[in-house]
Design brief:
single chain; 126 residues; alpha+beta; 6 helices; 41% helix; elongated
Length: 126
């Protein structure tokens, strides 16, 4: 669902105008700008995304009907409309194949084993 349509649903549920909710719905769907298929949802359509919405927009907004609406409720409703449930980050990433680059830069150095005087090369992740 597009952010404006989410705003219409928010208006029916919480009052006000769609514009009152537009920034929150745009934020949740902002990852579409970088991955234009449903995988974009892995970034913000989760319990973590709801937490981030509160960090960005505050605990509540006051809509144009002068009603206080919890940002958490708006974000939860958006995700429920799209997915039917609120997944965790583990739900999204739990089956992701870990790639070597995800661990950061790898440096090689030589280390001497004290007791044996042997030189072993190993990889250290900084």
């Amino acid at each position: 669902m597009k952010p404006y349509l989410h705003g219409l649903v928010s208006t029916k549920k919480f009052g006000g105008k769609p514009e009152d909710y537009q920034a929150i719905h745009d934020f949740i769907d902002s990852s579409k700008a970088h991955l234009a298929d449903v995988r974009h949802r892995a970034l913000l359509h989760s319990s973590f995304g709801i937490y981030l919405c509160e960090q960005v927009f505050g605990t509540y907004i006051t809509n144009s009907d002068n009603m206080i609406v919890q940002v958490r409720d708006i974000a939860e409703e958006h995700i429920l409309e799209d997915l039917g449930r609120i997944p965790s980050v583990q739900d999204w990433l739990g089956n992701m194949t870990i790639q070597q680059w995800m661990g950061g830069r790898i440096k090689k150095r030589k280390q001497t084993v004290e007791n044996k005087g042997e030189s072993n090369e190993f990889r250290k992740i900084d």
